[in-house]
Write a structure and sequence with these properties.
alpha/beta, Glucose Oxidase, domain 1, six-stranded mixed β-sheet, eight-stranded mixed β-sheet, about 325 residues
Length: about 325
């Protein structure tokens, strides 16, 4: 059976930085593609007005031919739309909705108010880049297509964070060896997954869209333009709006090299400051976020962590025990 992916844009339009896409990779995997009405619309820095963006998203939700909704990429203004989505409509159709970065504002709001699982995972741009990673597609397929109930997360062998689009030889990626996950605090945990872009999560602070984080396993990632000072700032703010020890655990996606961590200004230094009094498992340098490849995470699913055993298991539905 051929599945159809609806590609949407709740913030930045495809035309903002990229003139065209034929979704060649996804089509090679057997998918049909339907584009949201606003996907290639340019209205200032947005893919249309608030009304146009919301209506285009709702249209994909209601379209009987669309099986999966996939963000093309992020932006900065998805939070504008949150009061205008029909969360009952979204719950009624209950289609997988996937994206990362700014799109996680949408994913978190839908999970909270529609009570369905959403997915932090690849976007259309992920599969539009040169030489897409099999690792990314494999985890996408396991969770979204095959609907596997439980998977174990393994580290990728290689990754890429190069700015390929600025090079003349932009038809390939520059690969680096992946040293794998790192542990800042050891421990075991089991809890519901809340996953999102860090600064996007913080934008929701003080609104009804901010998730209940108590007891949750928090997976956070950040974009490549956030430098070390900003990462420190964001994590500090997170620690000031909640008691981090009430989380079940923290898992942090790999930062791109553009963030600028160094021997003298390292992730470990920042974590040592922000997490010094935290007694929950904390894992970092994981394969999700703004580098490639990335695994897919069900927001509202369950994570099981055992740092001593090197285990991160994902249960695809949040069932009551």
């Amino acid at each position: 059976m051929t599945l159809t992916i609806g590609i949407f844009a709740t913030s930045t339009s495809l035309f903002q930085e990229k003139k065209e896409s034929d979704f060649k990779y996804l089509k090679s995997k057997g998918f049909s593609i339907i584009e949201a009405d606003n996907l290639r619309k340019k209205d200032g820095h947005s893919a249309g007005s608030i009304k146009e963006r919301v209506e285009a998203f709702h249209s994909l939700i209601k379209n009987k031919d669309v099986d999966i909704l996939l963000a093309y990429w992020g932006g900065a203004n998805t939070n504008q739309l949150l009061p205008y989505f029909d969360y009952e409509l979204i719950k009624q159709y209950n289609k997988p909705i996937i994206g990362f970065s700014d799109t996680t504002a949408l994913l978190l709001a839908i999970q909270k108010f529609s009570k369905i699982v959403t997915y932090l995972g690849p976007a259309g741009i992920t599969f539009d880049k040169p030489e897409p990673f099999d690792y990314t597609y494999d985890y996408f397929k396991k969770l979204i297509i095959d609907k596997k109930e439980e998977i174990e997360i393994e580290d990728s062998k290689q990754y890429a964070d190069d700015l390929y689009f600025l090079r003349k030889d932009c038809d390939h990626r520059i690969l680096q060896q992946n040293v794998g996950r790192k542990v800042f605090k050891h421990g075991k945990a089991k809890g519901e997954i809340i996953a999102g872009n860090l600064q996007t999560l913080l934008v929701l602070t003080g609104t009804k869209y901010f998730p209940n984080l108590k007891g949750k396993i928090l997976f956070i990632e950040e974009e490549e333009s956030a430098n070390t000072q900003m990462v420190h700032r964001f994590l500090t703010q997170l620690s000031q709006i909640m008691e981090l020890n009430t989380l079940g655990g923290i898992c942090i996606g790999r930062f791109a090299s553009q963030t600028g961590f160094s021997k003298d200004d390292s992730e470990e230094m920042i974590y040592g400051d922000v997490f010094k009094n935290i007694n929950i498992p904390i894992i970092y340098n994981l394969d999700f976020g703004h580098t490639d490849p990335m695994f897919t995470l069900p927001i509202g699913g369950i994570a099981i962590i055992d740092t001593k055993q090197g285990i991160i298991k994902i249960i695809n539905r949040c069932d009551e025990e």
